[in-house]
Amino acid sequence: MEHQPRSRQRLSRDSDTEDMTMTLAPRLAYFAGVARTEHVTRAAQEMNVPQSTLSRAMVRLEQDLGVDLFARHGRTVSLTPAGRTFLASVERALAEVERAAEEVRADADPATGKVAFGFLHTMGAETVPGLLHAFRADHPRVRFSLVQNYGEAMIERLRAGELDLCLTSPVPDAPDLVARRLDEQKLRLVVPADHRLAARRRIRLSEAADETFVTLEPGYGLRRITDDLCRDAGFTPRIAFEGEEAETLRGLVAAGLGVALLPPPAVPRPGVAELTVTGQRAVREIGVAWLAGRPDTPPVAAFKSFLLSRRGQLLPT
Questions:
Q1: Diameter of the chain measured on Cα atoms
Q2: 51, 103, 199, 220: which could join 216 in a potential S-S bond, CB 3.0 to 4.6 Å?
Q3: Nearest to 296 by CA among 103, 98, 107
Q4: How do residues 23-46 score in pLDDT, each as one tens digit?
Q5: Separation CA 35–CA 2 (nearest Å)
């Protein structure tokens, strides 16, 4: 049977795609059921809907598309060529919806769900592995999607819904976010091992006003803290190198390319001396942040509660 275009009004070619999707989507599962059984009554019974509802839905679907999907033979139906073409795409679409539904159900499962967790690069070597090890002692099957990035980038990903939680610094203060301070790290002035100040144990930051600094790039929380501390000490740092990772900066210091304000390393680095900064509060606060008003899945709620319980004990001593 050749397909004949319907004479009734079709959806216009320039109809908004979203409007068409909203019109067609509720009827796709009905269509697939009728196509599978080739019998409206049987399909209605299998899907537990009134036959009249199913029949009307198929008529409306054909009207909206402007084509005949079925050839009708008494109580039975068969697909037209257009119907077979449409069915192939509908089955793929329904399978993708089912796959997505299974995925989100799995991610929300209290025992085996997933947490999308972001954290600063400096916490990747020791802090985060220790946290995950402790958390999974009680939640051994919870899965994690881990993202290392700088603070502003993680906040953007929180807002985009790509992260559930993030450990960041400085602790953000924004109306669309909830943030809780968890701990702080003392920052040290790191100088080359053969530097004139290397024999010192303590230093006022103003004594480094004439030094060349290596820092993280603008946008990083530690860069902002460095700039603020130097300003409070009465100078603007003279910057020779900007990087993206604290341990790279420590390597630049060891190579004699400048000095840096950095948190303690996970493992001591040869070739540098690390001096305690006195005269001002040289610390960076670490906090956990999440999007305000966003419901938590059970695994996210459990991990959030765990992080909050580590207040004051987040960082290795």
A1: 98
A2: 220
A3: 107
A4: 677 788 889 889 888 888 888 888
A5: 18
